[in-house]
Specification:
Length: 117
């Protein structure tokens, strides 16, 4: 994990500890919170055309989107920490898996799932 991300995690852990919120941050609750925040992110785009989204983001909606993305990231960092997951390594490993599942020569320009390529 990068130094900056480690610093952020330390701030999050301090914030959580000062409020005695560890008791509420069991893995199940953190996973639920990730999904709930992701749904709030989706709400920012729901029912809008691409043109409406561009306008919305230019006119201040980007700040709302940033907040929702940050909420998701916070819960992912906390869950990863609590479960002993090295997030950087997990992402690198997943990327290597995806490179095998989606080779460029088969996947380029396609939105098909790997088993349909």
């Amino acid at each position: 994990m990068s130094n900056e991300l480690e610093d952020i995690l330390e701030q999050l852990l301090k914030f959580r500890k000062e409020r005695d919120w560890e008791q509420f941050h069991r893995p199940k609750e953190l996973a639920i919170s990730i999904v709930l925040e992701a749904a709030e992110l989706l709400e920012e785009f729901q029912w809008k055309t691409d043109k409406e989204i561009r306008k919305y983001l230019k006119e201040g909606g980007l700040e709302n989107v940033k907040d929702e993305v940050a909420d998701i990231a916070v819960y992912i960092l906390l869950l990863s920490h609590d479960l002993g997951i090295d997030l950087t390594e997990a992402i690198k490993k997943k990327l290597r898996k995806n490179e095998k599942k989606y080779p460029v020569e088969k996947a380029k320009g396609s939105a098909k799932k790997y088993d349909k390529l």
